[in-house]
Write a structure and sequence with these properties.
193 residues; 8 helices; disordered N terminus
């Protein structure tokens, strides 16, 4: 033989390994869909609770948890009994990492009074002058909550810490402040905000 193949033999094409990879990719996709369906709401709620009610960051934590599960899908897909604890452990570790990062890079506290409302470019259809006038009709507590939560994009927990009040009070003030702002804008002829 001396490294030369005989003329009558054929080498089978490696198509079976390619088909096998496609099947495993489809299995991985189904595995991730199952994670979203079965564990998504639970993991988001769990992460948000650990993050002082920050649902948006809780959703980010869940997305990262799902991405890590996808990377390990071939291993995790065969171990159904240990999937739930693994997911919750990963989510918890990601929350811990988030808290550590916040400690290293704390939120900079900018005086709310220094925030320039006229520089808002998020809604180009509404003239910033009209919004400034509508904000002027609100009381100081309502203006402060709107500036913190909607202009500085602070979470409820961050706004509560900045103001020194409970998170529930921040939520309540934000609700009533937005309602008052809507009414003030409607008086100026802007509807559907």
């Amino acid at each position: 033989m001396n490294g030369i193949m005989e003329t009558g033999t054929t080498v089978p094409a490696p198509t079976w390994s390619h088909d096998r990879n496609l099947a495993s990719e489809a299995d991985c996709d189904a595995f991730i869909r199952d994670i979203y369906d079965q564990y998504g709401p639970l993991l988001i709620r769990y992460a948000a609770r650990l993050l002082d009610g920050d649902w948006h960051k809780g959703e980010d934590i869940f997305q990262e948890t799902a991405a890590r599960a996808w990377k390990h899908a071939r291993f995790l897909g065969t171990r159904h009994e240990s999937l739930r604890p693994w997911l919750f452990t990963v989510a918890r570790n990601l929350v811990i990492d988030h808290h550590r990062a916040r400690r290293i890079r704390p939120l900079e506290h900018m005086p709310v009074e220094e925030l320039d409302v006229s520089s808002d470019n998020t809604a180009p259809t509404i003239d910033s002058h009209v919004v400034s006038q509508a904000l002027g009709e609100l009381n100081e507590q309502q203006r402060t909550v709107i500036r913190l939560m909607y202009y500085l994009e602070c979470s409820v927990a961050q706004a509560a810490e900045h103001l020194g009040i409970p998170a529930g009070t921040v939520k309540s003030r934000a609700f009533y402040a937005m309602r008052a702002l809507r009414r003030a804008l409607e008086k100026q002829g802007i509807h559907g905000v």
